[in-house]
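Hi W.,

Here's what went into the run:
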Amino acid sequence: MHTNLRNQISGMLFAAPWIIGFLLFTLTPLAVSLGMSFTNYSLLSANPRFVGLDNYVRLTTDPLIAHSLKITFLYAIISIPLQLLSALLLAMLINRPLVGMRLFRTALYMPTIIPIVSSTLLWQQMLDVDFGLINYLISRLGLAPVTWLNQTPSIIASITLIDLWRIGRTMMINLAGLISIPTQYYESAQIDGAGAFSRFIHITLPLLTPTIFLNLITGLIGAFKSFATVNVLTGGGPDNRSLFYMLYLYRNAFERYRLGYASAMSLLLFVIVAVLTVVVFRSSRRWVYYEGEN
Amino acid sequence: MSPARPAALQRPSYIGRFFIGGSVVLLTLAYTFPMFWALSNSLKSYENLFSYPPTIFPQPLQWSNYSEAMTYQGFPFARFLLNTAQIALFSVTGTLVSSTLVAYSLARIRWRGRNLLLTFIILTMIIPGEVTITPRFMLFNRWGWIDTWLPLIVPNFFGSAFYIFLIRQYMMTIPIAMDESAIIDGANRLQTLVYVLLPQCRVILISVVVLALQDEWNAYLEPLIFINNMQLVPASVGLSYYSGMYQTQWHLVFAASTIVSAPIILLFILAQRYFVQGIVVTGVKG
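Here's what came out:
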């Protein structure tokens, strides 16, 4: 009886930092955001005024909102499947017993270690139209040079390329998933005469679906909040052609100081991410396999 | 590390092994080449960077790029680096201590509501910090925190959902018997955590330190917004100044990038044995 109470108190005490931090740095800001989104709050004018749903109405009429959302969705649709696929293939490759595999694992993971601003600057120089290494290689193949950082599709392709180079973390999570699959499954499948492809389809893939599910969720959130790479690479330009949603939010909040409008934009971002996550969670019942359920 | 496989699986056909080995080697070359390229560029002269066809091995090696990058007029790069190191020291310590305390509560203490809290912590991982960046700016502005390191450091002292989850998962794999006998011997909760449990959690704690340091080296949006004073900016934001220059001094960009990346790469190489093990043991299944 006495220990129960003591456990209750010490449990809550040890957990207190997170609860306080959540209230201070997540819940309060969310509430402030909601309040501010009904005002024309700006750092430039002294007293904010209640404007009702004006900011939300403007979200639907501002052409750059639709524009930046389109670019961000396009990026998500192109980048995420490619990331999931490459991370899976790479993880399967480095799961093989091969001499020097630890070295290969480290090498493939290494690009993720490089600070994002550094690696983006590196790719910016490699993607340069006239002097970049990529166009040099393309010209050696006898093809015309590509102006990588000029049009929306080629900018999205460039960022996806950088993402695939920085795939290490997702690859490692997949590797962890692969290693945790019991080898007995493979042994008995082999005794039954299942080939490599059949083993992949009937054992590896189903048992890895929880991992892929996790990677899909993180990938989705990552795509919608992406900022650093594109801001360093193009700054949203030229001519807003790579204006990702977060870049437009940043501009409104911290370049034009329209904090009320930016608050409404933040909440829209929150709703989009939440809805997509719920959709993926609901779909997971159909394709994610949990051991012990079947 | 990988479990022993049956003979038939360990030895696929020679053609298969050749194909797999070949792809791994090719991919490794492709993934490491850009890093080698950055290193090579950091030793080229400005003109040499724009030569066509590109030079792979610069002649002569222009080591002065490094000293020039550190002393470049108007960009106190040594200052930026020192800032990153100091911010990282406080932030990583804060994250590590607070996340461990919360993880301990969730893994070891029986109290009503702990499973609910765990679910809730995991759920909050889907709220990107970007969503709250505008209101946080307003709050920090009101508190007088803008243009200080406080917005970058203080929130780390309240635990990070992801690291809490990782440490908690790891603690769950450690048998509880030793904790319980320590408690019976009269140790309090904090003593049990520090002297009994933590030594066994070395692998995951090192992994968390590496990941948290990586976060610090990558931090970009928050310092960009919360700090305007150039003397206080961390290296990540400082680096981006180089690209915003009227005419980008690419040879200095590469030298500076290499300097920024070197410590974190070195650390990873030193810790990688623990790091991979930490991620693999923890796994991803709840």
